[in-house]
Amino acid sequence: MKNMFKLALRGLLRNRRRSMVTLLAIAFGFSAIALFAGYTHNVYDGLGRQSIHGEMLGHLTLYKKGMRQEGKLDPERYLLTAQEVADITRLVQEEPHVRLVAPRLGMSGLISNGRASTIFIAEGIEPEAVVKLREGSLTEAERKSGMFDNMKMRLDKDRPEVVSLSEGLAEMLHLKEGEVAQVLVNTLSGQANAADVTLGKSFNTGNAGSNDKFAFVSLALARNLLDAAGRAQRLTILLDDVNQTAAMRDRLQAKLKAAGFDVEILTWQELSDFYNQVHGMFDMIFGFIFSIVLTVVIMSVANSMGMTVVERTREIGTLRAIGLKRSGVIRLFTLESMLLTLFGCITGLLISLLVRWGVNAANISYIPPNSASPVPLLVDLDVGRTIFTFVLMGVVGTLAAYMPARRAAKKDIIDALGHV
Questions:
Q1: How, if at all, do strands 60-64 and 162-166 pair?
Q2: Looking at the structure, do residues 167 and 115 belong to the same domain, yes or no?
Q3: Is 229 helix (H, G, I), strand (E, B) or coil?
Q4: Which residue, 26, 272, 276, 398, is the most exposed by fewest CB within 10 angstroms?
Q5: Are the beta carbons of 204 and 145 closer than 8 angstroms?
Q6: DSSP letter string over 338-387?
């Protein structure tokens, strides 16, 4: 086997130019896949944290059964009562990994500055819960980029009338910090209810579609406006480890069912449509790029090894004449192909690491579609996809030499020796 490796290396060095061109084709193809995989990994990670902390979805959201379907037509029937909120919160907080259980109450209506009015959509949440949902969710690069400016949003626990409006909504109403506006909503029973509110902080939702209509208000104000004392539309559950999300969902579902609560628990992935759409789109693009690069690698290796086999037909005849079997000829050329592919993948890995370092150090930012703020262009190291690509390209590159080597091995020794 040692001699076989030596022969394979000599075979690669015999035509250095062809081997180098094929190696570079493999290397650049591998680096392109590794870099795109790293970029999508960073996008998925950022979108996940934006969903959990930026949109304040938490890791799990608990509803009364039927709230997401029939609750829009009859919200009062499907709201959690004050007693249910207290009992469920106690049961959930008994579990390990649970950091926070926050009651939430959504509402919509009209907001006015006294001269003009517009619609708004608001989330009622306790001010302390906002801080816990936001804290520790950004990387240093994201803090510098302003990617999540809405992290600056705060509510005042001592002043429930203080609200946070999205930047577009505050700009539309020409409201500045400390100025007063009026809101008008319908209570659960359908009656009109109004209140004066004071603008605290404005924030950027990060989404162009919601940046001119979204608001956060204190849970006390939302309950007062909706006439829903002590009640909640849902409970947001924050964990200390995102990897515990699925297991905790199943555990809580079984525990609450045994306690007699008819509820449904959804994960942040199930609630974040934008995350799922972006994830599906990038997975499709990755598969498309991967198939193209894999085809290029197969064609490059097959073409290189095919030409090599033709040029070395007399050498093959000589090896067969001194006792090398047909299977040995096939092993020799497939080994050459395997070494060529592995060297190409290793070179591609080094190229991708170098490019990744350069991109991450360049402080490049861009504004994605449907976004209201720039995000940093960063490339992670997606170990799983990189290893998968390395192994698959190695296997495919090795098998690409099988057919040319098999044809050469089938030639008679005399015909091979007389080949011109």
A1: unpaired
A2: yes
A3: coil
A4: 276
A5: no
A6: HHHHHHHHHHHHHHHHHHHHHHHHTT-EE--TT-SS-EE------HHHHH
**Which residues span the domain enclosing 96?**
58-271
Out of 271, 291, 312, pick the residue that ends a domain: 271
**Do 136 and 230 share a structural domain?**
yes
In the block, tokens 């509110």 appear at 197
Q: Quick one: 267 and 353 in the same domain?
A: no
> Where is average pLDDT lowest: 189-193, 327-331, 396-400?
327-331
Q: Nearest CA to 244 among 98, 104, 415?
A: 98
The tokens describing 12, both together, are 């690669």
Exposed e or buried b for every residue in 167-176, given b needs 16+ CB within 10 A? bbbbebbebe
Shared domain for 289 and 406, answered yes or no, is yes
Judge whether residue 198 has pLDDT over 80: yes
Coil, strand or helix at 269: helix
The torsion angles phi and psi of 296, rounded to 5 degrees, stand at -65, -40
Same domain, 111 and 258: yes
Q: How far apart are CA 245 and CA 248, in angstroms?
A: 5
Both 372 and 239 in a single domain? no
62 and 188 inside one domain: yes
pLDDT in tens, 15-34: 778 878 888 888 998 999 99
Helix axes 245-258, 82-93, angle to 10 degrees: 130
| Long-range Cβ contact pairs of 239-242 (< 8 A, separation 24 or more) | 239/59, 239/60, 239/97, 239/98, 239/99, 240/97, 240/98, 240/99, 241/97, 242/48, 242/52, 242/59
Residue type, 88: I
pLDDT at 363 over 90: no
In the chain, the amino acid numbered 284 is M
* Strands 117-125 and 214-218, sheet pairing: parallel
Nearest Cα residue to 109 out of 273, 266, 226, 209: 226
Domain count, the chain: 2
Residues 6 and 126 in one domain: no
Of 239, 271, 303, at which residue does a domain stop?
271
Give me the mean pLDDT over the 331-358 stretch. Answer: 88
**Which residue type is seen at 116?**
A
**Contacting residues for 341 by C-beta, under 8 A, at least 6 apart:** 26, 297, 301, 393, 394, 396, 397, 398
What confidence tier does 293 reach under pLDDT thresholds 50, 70, 90? confident
pLDDT single digits (tens) 50-61: 788 877 888 999
